[in-house]
Amino acid sequence: MFIRPKKPAPEPYVRSTLADLGYRIDPEDGKVRSIATGDMYDSGADKRRAAELYQSLAHPASREVYQIMVEGDLRMEPVAVPSSDQPHTSIYATPGALAKDKLVVIVVGHGTCGGVWASNVLLKSGIREGSVIDY
């Protein structure tokens, strides 16, 4: 019996930033836009191409939100919950938040990067609607 060997699947080319993909978060309106044309991310009529583009942009866009939260003007600090000496998750707090009398906790969606409500909203509506940045 002859069994045809499977062709190895090509390694996907993973780009590390929105700029590598030809996109950026517009500083004026916070929308994810093409660097070349200025057009917003669009799911378009070609569903397969739209799904590939979405998968390519979702993680880099979320990382940019994280960079704004932690390295940008907000200077949010990761806080380990329950504690860093056991299995934990991190929340992000503004400087001095845990020393205040009142604390507001914002919980983002399941399966998203910290600070992002939903990747779909981030890509279609922009950083102001799709992340905690304005809150």
TrEMBL record:
A GO MF annotation of the entry reads: siRNA binding
The chain positions of domain Arb2 read 16-135
Signal peptide coordinates: none
Listed under GO biological process in this entry are:
regulatory ncRNA-mediated heterochromatin formation
Record's Gene Ontology CC terms? Answer: nucleus
What PANTHER family does the record tag this protein with?
FAM172 FAMILY PROTEIN HOMOLOG CG10038 (PTHR21357)
Q: What is this protein called?
A: Arb2 domain-containing protein
Per the UniProt record, the source organism is: Coemansia biformis
